[in-house]
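Q: Here's a chain of 337 amino acids. Please give me its 3D structure as tokens.
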Amino acid sequence: MRHKIMAICDTEEGYAFRMAEYILEKVKLPYTLHLFTAVEELEKFAGREEIEILLIAENAWRKIREEFVRSQVAQMFVLQESEQAAGQEEICCINKYQSPEKVVQKMLDVIADGNGWKDYPEATDTAVKMIGIYSPVKRCLQTSFALTLGQLLAKEHRTLYLNFEMYSGLGELLQRDYQTDMLDVMYYFQSAREKLAFRLPAIIQNAGGLDYIPPMQYAPGIKEVPGEQWLALCGDIAAIGKYEYMILDLDDGIDGLFDLLRSCQKIYTITRDDPFAMAKLRQYEQMLQTGELEEITEKTVKCRFPVFQQLPESLDMMTHGELAGYVKSIIKEDIYG
């Protein structure tokens, strides 16, 4: 099967390489990417190959022949450097002087709103292994454990982390400002499910080698989504991204908590030795028994951590330290075993 081609052309080499690096490492579009810093080389290449998507800087766009654009490029996006490129309806202009994330998101928005990229892989059944992290005990290192587990698995497997906390604080802790989050993903899923694959690549972030979707910034939004839709969305995301493992960092505020837990191959529940923690855990286990949710109990592994002297200072460096050593033994003996 012939691979479709996306090309980037910019005479400003530094910008061109940064954009190509971002697309290759962060977005992972299903297209073969070619980079050009000279218009002549782009035109020679286009004489031999069809270009599906061309992302071209305004300085290069002004040098190419009009007949080349009409005959050799299916869809073109001009990285606008001045006001002169605007106002032409047939040209889709994107402000060059913003983050690669915003540039690519705008490009994908245009494509998704139109009819482009019909051959993007659709979501199909996938053999993803969902691992749930949930505890009725709070402040028990649940998110630290989930991120460590995810980052370690991501070293050898395509792994995605999803945080369902009402107030995760993840953006501040990772010092990142998110333009889109899980609520946007759910909106695309509900309103135009067939276009989710176009939107998803630019939304997914990475921390310490682990892919993740930014948690909802609007906390009440997480309560408004029916549980069955969370489950269906997880399936679509896993298939689109071809993920082998999906780490679900779960919270009481989500509708369908037990449906998600039932769908997990393994569940980790963290507890502590103090009376309050033990009482909460017993009440939770009694509720599972009363509600005929023994299936969740059977999949659950209870973790009681030792006292860690020090945790990593950064959440994108969770594969180092005492907690990582503890989690490595869990992966070796429990998940792989």
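Q: Can you summarize the key feature?
A: The CA atoms of residues 329 and 335 lie 9 Å apart.
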